[in-house]
Amino acid sequence: MKINVEVDLTPEELRRFMGLPDVGAVQKELLEQFTQRVSASNEQRDEFLRNLLTGAVAPWQSFFNMVSGTGAQTGDPRDK
User: Fold this and answer.
1) How far apart are CA 32 and CA 28, in angstroms?
2) Is 15 exposed, middle or buried (0-12, 13-18, 19+ CB in 10 A)?
3) What is the tens place of the pLDDT at every residue in 31-63?
4) 75: alpha, beta or left, given left = phi > 0 and alpha = psi -120 to 50?
């Protein structure tokens, strides 16, 4: 037996039903800060974006190094 139930909800209604907090104000504040930093001077913008991307890429780089086994190797593999 197969039963399908369709519920027509807005994201706001689903959030309230699930008991999740409303983070709209936090998202708005973060977006404003991000916009201010990106629209700052070129040097500040470049430094901000570099730090942002480094922080975002580093965990993935560590993960892929661990999965591929390259994180355990030291030195040049041709030396073996």
Assistant:
1) 6
2) middle
3) 998 888 778 777 777 887 788 778 788 888 888
4) left
Name residue, tokens 């709209």.
24
Backbone angles phi, psi at 45, to 5 degrees: -65, -45
Q: How far is CA 8 from CA 3, 5, 13, in A?
A: 17, 10, 10
Side chain identity, residue 44:
Q
The helix or strand, by DSSP H or E, that contains position 32, with its residue range, turns out to be helix 24-38
Nearest CA-CA partner of 45 in 36, 57, 54? 36
Question: Which tokens belong to 2?
Answer: 């197969």
Residue with tokens 């907090």: 21
